[in-house]
């Protein structure tokens, strides 16, 4: 039997500050508070406009 070569996918590391959705109509730009900040449930739904 021949050994099947396994290809490993290399992922680019993206920093949290670099994530950007350019054409989203419902997102708004807000200052980054930090990745560990937890949103209150009411604030979460308010940001979604619900």
Order of helices and strands: H
Shape: elongated
**Could you give a short account of the major beta sheet?**
none
Uncertain segments:
none
Mean pLDDT value:
72
Rg is: 19 Å
How far the N terminus sits from the C terminus, by CA atoms, comes to: 59 Å
Counting helices, strands and paired strands, the structural category is mainly alpha
Secondary structure tally: strands: 0
Percentage of residues in DSSP E strands: under 5%
Q: What does the oligomeric state look like here?
A: single chain
Percent of residues in helices: 10-25%
Number of helices: 1
Topology (SSEs and partners):
Layout lengths: L40 H8 L2
Word description of this protein:
- With 50 residues, the protein is mainly alpha-helical.
- Helix content is 16%, strand content 0%.
- It contains 1 helix and no strands.
- The longest helix is centred in the last third of the chain and has 8 residues.
- It starts with 40 loop residues before the first helix and ends with a helix.
Summarize the structure in short.
With 50 residues, this protein is an all-alpha fold. It is 16% helix and 0% strand. The radius of gyration is 19 Å and the shape is elongated.
Features:
mainly alpha, 16% helix, 1 helix, 50 residues
């Amino acid at each position: 039997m021949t050994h099947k070569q396994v290809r490993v996918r290399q992922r680019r590391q993206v920093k949290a500050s670099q994530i950007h959705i350019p054409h989203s109509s419902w997102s708004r730009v807000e200052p980054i508070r930090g990745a560990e900040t937890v949103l209150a449930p009411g604030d979460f739904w308010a940001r979604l406009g619900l």
